[in-house]
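Schema walk-through. Below, the input block comes first and the output block second. Nothing else is stored per chain. Lengths vary across the set, and this one has 102 residues.
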Amino acid sequence: MKTACGGASWYSLRSRTASGEMMNPAAMTAAHKTLPLGSKVKVTNLKNNRSIVVTINDRGPFIKGRLIDLSKGAARQLDFVHSGVARVQIESVDGSGTKSCA
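--- output ---
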């Protein structure tokens, strides 16, 4: 996967994810439209440079301009729960083929 930059939001549901597991708002998980379920990506908040690794376990986001939907726990770690959205960079955890976003 190449590096991608875009909008991130967070969600906190109590339902099943696309992977079949129950959504855990405290877990380090995320929804992405096309990345394989179970894959891990590093997500960096471009405003404060905080980074975490999340597991893709759901599909989405379904709002134009959004790249990824994070669990509330992941958004808390990246410090954007209050704002609701952030500009982020996502990249594969092995760092292959990455370049930073402007």
